[in-house]
Design goal:
The complex is a heterodimer of chains A (56) and B (229). Chain A has 56 residues and is mainly alpha-helical. In chain A, 95% of the residues lie in helices and 0% in strands. Chain A starts with a helix and ends with a helix. Chain B is mainly α. The radius of gyration of chain B is 20 Å and the shape is globular. The chains are: A mainly alpha (56), B mainly alpha (229). Chains A and B meet through helix 1 of A and helix 1, helix 3, helix 4 and helix 8 of B.
């Protein structure tokens, strides 16, 4: 097999690896940010309710 | 605990990226083209093999986490096991994809029913079943216990896969590294080892991010319970 022919397979393999790893990282990072936002919101809401409850 | 610092894990990702890029540059610019019939397509090896080793490492982490969970049913071990299996399966699918491409280039066949490929495919099916199991058991502690037992049983296939080419050498898949012999010349081995370190660091970095995400999901459930109560 010539270098040119082999290069097509090599490029395809590395492109798949790069695409999958970057996509997975991006999805994970976005998921963590969204979850962190939800936790912060819920925590504030719980604190507000508990403060209101203790004030009654 | 500073979750943001834990989840971004910038130092780990930066180190992984530096090692992986260096490994790739060395593989293409420093290591020679393989003299065997594989020729230039052998360059796939420099990421293919580290991804395979890292996938098996992830299943090993899941195995250890499963044992730790059965000894001490702390949800953190279940989270670690779950995330390890997910990443192990992702890396395994990458191994299969890159292996098929390499197989087509080297053997002119996308697939061959030979020991290494077949046992690796079984690993993929086994760990895919792990997720099915987790979906069908609703109660949290039972789900975690069943998943831990399954992860231990599934791990039996990992050493079989690793040693398949060594004890069944009639297959197509080459045995490159054996005890006491790297099986390749110095520049090739250096490129491989740097990629190996990079891939391991990438696994650890992704594990940290995903474990943090699972912990946040548990925090959300706890907070919702508190609001309901």
């Amino acid at each position: 097999m010539s270098i040119e022919e082999g290069a097509k397979f090599v490029a395809a393999a590395y492109a798949i690896i790069l695409a999958v790893v970057i996509a997975y990282y991006a999805l994970s990072a976005r998921r963590v940010s969204a979850l962190q936002r939800d936790v912060d919101l819920l925590r504030r809401e719980v604190e507000k309710r508990e403060a209101a409850g203790s004030g009654d | 605990m500073d979750v943001k610092k834990l989840t971004s894990a910038p130092a780990l990702f930066a180190a992984a990226g530096a090692f992986l890029v260096t490994g790739l540059l060395l593989a293409f610019l420093y290591a020679p083209i393989d003299a065997s019939s594989m020729g230039f397509s052998q360059k796939i090896f420099y990421y293919h093999a580290p991804i395979a080793e890292t996938a098996l490492l992830a299943f090993g982490i899941a195995f250890v986490a499963a044992i730790l969970y059965l000894r001490d049913p702390d949800p953190k071990w279940d989270r670690l096991g779950y995330v390890s299996v997910r990443l192990g399966l992702l890396f395994s699918l990458l191994v299969m994809a890159t292996g098929m491409i390499w197989g087509k280039a080297a053997w002119d066949a996308w697939w061959a029913w030979e020991p290494r490929l077949t046992t690796f495919l079984i690993v993929c099916f086994l760990y895919a079943a792990y997720f099915v199991l987790r979906q069908v058991v609703e109660e949290e502690s039972r789900r975690a216990t069943f998943a831990a037992v399954f992860a231990i049983v599934a791990f039996i296939d990992v050493p079989i896969t690793f040693f398949a080419t060594r004890y069944m050498p009639e297959g197509l898949h080459p045995v490159v590294i054996t005890a006491g012999d790297s099986g390749m010349e110095g520049s090739m081995f250096l490129s491989f080892m740097i990629s190996m370190v990079g891939m391991t660091l990438l696994l650890v970095a992704l594990l940290r991010v995903d474990v943090a995400a699972e912990r946040l999901k548990d925090d959300i459930d706890d907070l919702k319970t508190r609001m309901g109560g």
